[in-house]
């Protein structure tokens, strides 16, 4: 194997080291920034009050609609909560056309979403839908509405359980005229334009949905503490004591139930340390940020989540490719590797993060899956073993740094809420492509958690981490239920009042 290539890959990989002392510093800084966020607006960690003041216990019942906007797909589902920790879910998924994500108007986008809801109702709840249309035609009072939970996974300043204004887009979305507007109202007016029997009852971040869904499906002694997403983006929502959310005092119009003494806070940790006081930084991170459509924000997310890891890797590999001494992926007398000029290797965001999962999973001696991934994703054929090994070294370094960074907010929240000091197990629900598909992602998170002095081996043993699938569906339905109870909305679908 070419040792120059491997030496250079190893050297670059070292730049991604994120050792224990830096994890510890990260945790301390996170706790500081999270306290700032609980006290005031416009801090790096938004710490958004969600107005959800209780987690479910598994006995909730009813039929609800939920929609999910936040990644590459738009999902519409109906969720039947059976009241015994189980549920049935019917869903449809559609890819969001790129032009609607980044160049259209908010009206185009929300009408598109409403049309998908209409199509879903026609296929799966046609009887109800037709009955509604009939009543409307006959001039009867139209009250027979579905309550819908709207999972909208972007930073939103919530004003109540069913309203909130968009702070900024993330994850490649960019529709400027929506910023500063109430996204529930935007969806409701598109729904009304199509005369659908649907009321937007709750606005839900996917992390809050994950927390709720986990709490419903695995009720423990104390409920779930934290819901976290490590997918296209990253973020977490956790249960906070109301009296610690001191900025609520300045929100004069806010109405919420104070009986539990708690509220779920959407941390928006993707923007942790935007000013880069403790986050690791390589030249590849810097270039990625400078060329992104939101430089200087979501700095934590840009080092951790799926939308970005592929691009970090691409930039590191490209640097080696452009280094004439190394000749990575270049044909020569000794190598007949082929890399066509239209390869996504040369395109910004061209390298999908699923390549990292595939490469990391390959333990074969002859790099079978690495080769397949390079060919499928980037049309790179006949790479040498040394080239494959170099890719593996970089992938491992970038993925491991992401996982170790992910431990920072988790540890900080465990410490800040004092939950490790109680007798009970602490439950954490997670979702997203990295935790699901990146080999050993959770193991690396746990390794770093144990290195944090206030967590240690004993603390780590108290933490139960479980995948919480369908948070954006079930979780949104659960919050729609809470909201419909709160507001005493009418409940035509057998929903709890
Ligand atoms: C968004 C969060 C979301 C996370 C995971 C981030 O980009 O800002 O609101 O929870 O992605 O989807």
Automatic annotation (TrEMBL):
Keyword DNA damage belongs to the record: no
Pathway assigned in UniProt: Carbohydrate degradation; glycolysis; D-glyceraldehyde 3-phosphate and glycerone phosphate from D-glucose: step 1/4
Lineage top rank: taxon: Eukaryota
GO biological process, one term: glucose metabolic process
Keywords annotated in UniProt: ATP-binding, Glycolysis, Kinase, Nucleotide-binding, Transferase
One MF annotation (Gene Ontology) recorded for this entry: D-glucose binding
Domain Hexokinase N-terminal: 10-216
Keyword Nucleotide-binding: yes
Gene Ontology cellular-component terms listed: cytosol; mitochondrion
Residue ranges of every copy of the Hexokinase C-terminal domain listed in the record: 226-482
InterPro entries: ATPase_NBD, Hexokinase, Hexokinase_BS, Hexokinase_C, Hexokinase_N
Pfam family, one: Hexokinase_1
Documented EC number(s): 2.7.1.-
PROSITE patterns in the record: HEXOKINASE_1, HEXOKINASE_2
Family: Belongs to the hexokinase family.
Protein name: Phosphotransferase
